[in-house]
């Protein structure tokens, strides 16, 4: 049978049948809000990310209240480290009284039901802006870095982080962190592995926001983050992280890598997240600011695309706005 008996447009004719056949939906449950925390009082704008601000812990608590009201499940914290706190060994990363640890304690104290995710990586704490400890040639030394990451993850767990999210792409770090968490009794701490993280040029505005861009200079992260041409390698990375004890896996960046999200979800069927990164946000915001694209419609469409690709959730700087728009739309 074919046309005229088969007319796919019949189902698209009315809103009721469009709603009935819709396969993917976006709700506030799908959103994770990344936030930048800094030491100074008040807020500071991030020029390449309009609408995003670095927040003091007091301001962070205000934002957390809004996020909770909007039923956003979790925040992802990114500390902006003062130059004095940066060093070659990144030791301030596991200071129990560091900015990230204080922010976690303040959040869990005031909003115990709001999930708190911390970034496990050394780049905010190294003087050179790499995600690990380097040798004389500037090469990130894997196993020494993993030891530091274990210290950092344990410090986050002691502060009360619900989820630790290693974003460094070292080999073996998930297994090492999982073993250390178990040994110290943190059996409930979830690990969200940045399993397939690419050496992307879309992280630029984030590096401005956390102040690692100037430290990194012209260097890149291609000896540990993945080559944008690869997809089988992503599956291998995800397989290893799951074997080593990850509870959730992430693909990053988002929109240019939706094929990876789909492959990961189909292959493993585990909780899978995508990060709509700073450059994707900046790109959309620039078009909105010029009046070239409609903000609400395009931001929600981009986020829905992650769901359709198989993501269970999205880390997005649009989280607060998106949750508001979804609520207004009922
Ligand atoms: C660092 C880290 C980065 C991002 C999250 N964690 C940047 C990088 O790897 O250089 C990027 C997030 C974004 O661009 O929004 N470990």
UniProtKB/TrEMBL annotation:
- What superkingdom does the record give? Bacteria
The pathway that the record names for this protein is:
Porphyrin-containing compound metabolism; protoporphyrin-IX biosynthesis; coproporphyrinogen-III from 5-aminolevulinate: step 1/4
A UniProt-annotated Pfam family: ALAD
SUPFAM superfamilies linked to this entry: Aldolase
User: What EC number(s) has UniProt assigned to this enzyme?
Assistant: 4.2.1.24
Query: Keywords for this entry?
Result: Heme biosynthesis, Lyase, Porphyrin biosynthesis
- EC class: lyase
Note whether Lyase occurs among the keywords: yes
- List the catalysed reactions: 2 5-aminolevulinate = porphobilinogen + 2 H2O + H(+)
The record's note on quaternary structure and interaction partners says: Homooctamer.
Membership in a protein family: Belongs to the ALAD family.
Q: What is this protein called?
A: Delta-aminolevulinic acid dehydratase
Q: Supply the source organism for this entry.
A: Luteimonas lutimaris
């Amino acid at each position: 049978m074919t046309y005229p008996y088969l007319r796919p447009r019949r189902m698209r004719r009315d809103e009721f049948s469009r709603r009935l056949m819709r396969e993917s939906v976006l709700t506030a449950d799908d959103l994770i809000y990344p936030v930048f925390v800094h030491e100074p009082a008040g807020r500071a704008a991030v020029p390449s990310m309009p609408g995003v601000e670095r927040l003091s812990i007091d301001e962070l608590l205000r934002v957390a209240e809004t996020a909770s009201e909007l039923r956003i499940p979790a925040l992802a914290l990114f500390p902006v480290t003062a130059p004095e706190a940066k060093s070659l060994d990144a030791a301030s990363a596991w200071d129990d009284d560091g900015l990230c640890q204080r922010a976690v304690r303040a959040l869990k104290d005031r909003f115990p039901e709001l999930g708190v995710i911390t970034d496990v990586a050394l780049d905010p704490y190294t003087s050179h802006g790499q995600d690990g400890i380097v040798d004389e040639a500037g090469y990130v030394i894997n196993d020494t870095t993993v030891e530091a990451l274990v210290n950092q993850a344990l410090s986050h767990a002691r502060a009360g982080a619900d989820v630790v999210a290693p974003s460094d792409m070292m080999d073996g770090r998930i297994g090492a962190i999982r073993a250390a968490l178990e040994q110290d009794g943190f059996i409930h701490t979830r690990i969200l592995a940045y399993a397939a993280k690419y050496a992307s040029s879309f992280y630029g505005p984030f590096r401005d926001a956390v102040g690692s861009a100037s430290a990194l200079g012209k260097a890149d992260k291609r000896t540990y983050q993945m080559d944008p041409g690869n997809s089988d390698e992503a599956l291998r990375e995800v397989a290893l992280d799951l074997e080593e004890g990850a509870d959730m896996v992430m693909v990053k960046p988002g929109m240019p890598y939706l094929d990876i999200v789909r492959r990961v979800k189909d292959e493993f069927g585990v909780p899978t997240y995508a990060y709509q990164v700073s450059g994707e946000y900046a790109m959309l915001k620039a078009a909105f600011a010029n009046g070239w694209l409609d903000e609400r419609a395009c931001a929600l469409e981009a986020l829905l695309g992650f769901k359709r690709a198989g993501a269970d959730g999205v880390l997005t700087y649009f989280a607060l706005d998106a949750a508001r728009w979804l609520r207004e739309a009922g």
